[in-house]
User: Fold these one by one.
Assistant:
Number 1:
Amino acid sequence: MIRPEFVIEDEQSLRGLFQPTHTLATLKLQRALDRHAQAFIRRSPFLCIGTQDMNGNADVSPRGDPVGFVQILDQHTLAIPDRPGNNRLDSLSNIIANPRVGLLFIVPGYDDTLRVNGTARLVTDPALLETMRVNDRTPRLAIVVSVDEVFLHCAKAFRRSHLWDPAHFQDRSEMPSLSKIILDQTNGAPSDDDEMRKIDDDLEVEYSKTLY
């Protein structure tokens, strides 16, 4: 149990724990996508998008595609294709309720990341969607983001975590498969190993059919 006297509830108390913000950390915030931000985005095959519903309930969703999948429409606008998923539509529903979004772009091997904050719309313009076709599959919609803030984030988190260091990679087999975990959490996973293996194999087949 966390004792109330150790809970920080106002910004003055928060900032009292830290040194003042470095001048460069303040100045680095941009209002448009300059050439460096654009170059970073064109190299990125992966991002996370943070959204909230009208009640402030938060969600973060990963998005991945071939390198450069996010289109730069101009210095103030990005377009993200929406690929097939589990159809929960958490991020998309949140955008309708509250269009404010935060994006975190990641490039494999890079320790720094790019953060973009802005306002999103869900767009079904056929001309735009056609430019996002992959393997003859066109997305049903795109998330178009009007950019408000752009800045590069330093490498400390990635270096502390050794995220790209193979020596720190973990063996996925040390945990159950995704299918088994979800079944354990819901209807119950089969005890028979062969039956469980077939379920895992079926998921891989489903991946191959529905990625786009």
Note: Residues 44 and 107 are 5 Å apart (CA to CA).
Number 2:
Amino acid sequence: MSQYPLDPAYLINDEEALRALFPQVTPIAAKKSVKQLDKHARELIARAPFLCIGTQRPDEQADVSPRGDAPGFVQVLDETTLLIPDRPGNNRLDTQANILANPAVGLLFIIPGFDETLRVNGTARITRDPKLLADSAVNGRVPLTAIIVSIEEIFIHCAKAFRRSKLWDPSQHQDRREMPSLIEIVLDQTSGRPDDPDEMRRLNDRLEETYRTKLY
């Protein structure tokens, strides 16, 4: 695969050159990183129905994956430990396999209506301890595993990205129908869509049925 030809004269290759381009970090920004959960971080986590988890693959390629559930789905086990239950997905197990190869993780907690986010960095392990998993059951269905995150760094991220993107502004919401469905996109990227429109409709209906019946 060809790579876009970047001009090496303008590439930044070390941190010193990078920092020379920007104003010095403010004292409060430098100090806002903490090592354990305080009351504010706990409340933000309790309110969050969504997070992104960043991991690194064995080949050192980066990966990020979404996790979503009812607010409070991430459990606080103690002041430095979180539990993220695994829910049914596509069974690629990218995040879990990455953690087994490299336990370093980064979490970004997002709360609808909040422009600020909470960032958590640490190391992760995977558990199938039934005592820990029991509290994450939904509709009687217990997750097969959970990700345990040992916190090393926590800080709240400012609102600029969300203010610029206007993420929560309904007037900026786009019409999902303007693009193909998920299954149509995947088929376009792999084996191709079926010629029969009725078959394509059945595939879309099957995906929606999975959403309705297999979230847990």
Note: Residues 137 and 193 are 37 Å apart (CA to CA).
Number 3:
Amino acid sequence: MRDDERALTAEESCLAAGLEALLYRHDPIGIAFGDNPDEYSPEARALLPRLVETRTVDDVQDVVHAVFVQWLDEGTAGPRTRYRLIAEEISALLRH
């Protein structure tokens, strides 16, 4: 079973919703059109188990970029630098 298909705990669901909203707001691959707020749901859910491995903003940036490369491809995901602000916000979200 893929990470995006497994049942989430209440805490994970809350975090996934926050991640999804954050990704949608930043829209790193240009797919947020206003009528598709769940567009980043698979990526948000795929991030959940991998974020526990992170300790720094750089770690989070690596994980977020890797997930987008995995789900899409290197060209569509774009450069790692595209995910810096996202990683900073995710790191702040995880601290709270």
Note: Residues 10-26 form the longest helix (17 residues).
Number 4:
Amino acid sequence: MTVRTRQILVKEAASLFDLKPGVVEDADDDDDDPNISSGYPKDELNSAIGYTSQMLDLIVRYLGIKLPFCLFRKDIYTYIRSIPHSRLYQNQSKMPLYLENDKNFRRFLIGVSMLNYNIVYLCYTQGVHIPLSQVANTLQNLLACCNAPGLGL
């Protein structure tokens, strides 16, 4: 009964965020400016990462799983850091999960990598194998986890 309840909660969380399989469209070859299609506004990127971290937080709470990296919020910003005394990543500084400007770009990339590691770890706990080449597919991996046959076991 507990497993079924967990599955329902995770499915409902996925539906709240309208998480569904999609297709990444290639940029038009006729485009005069190749930079238009390759860049995303910071606000859209930050919103997507923010929603992803919120969804991940909900799912792990529903499933009762402790992640390798800790997500937390301060004001409107989301951060991630290693759990104290972790052997996985010794640096205890918080990494931003928002892109502010070029000054925090490197730390933002480290934060997103940590977020992806958390998602792949969650997938592992639910019996979903994510190949190394697919680790950066954040939402695809999260969806795979939400659709895992053994979700909540």
Note: Residues 23-37 have pLDDT under 50 and may be disordered.
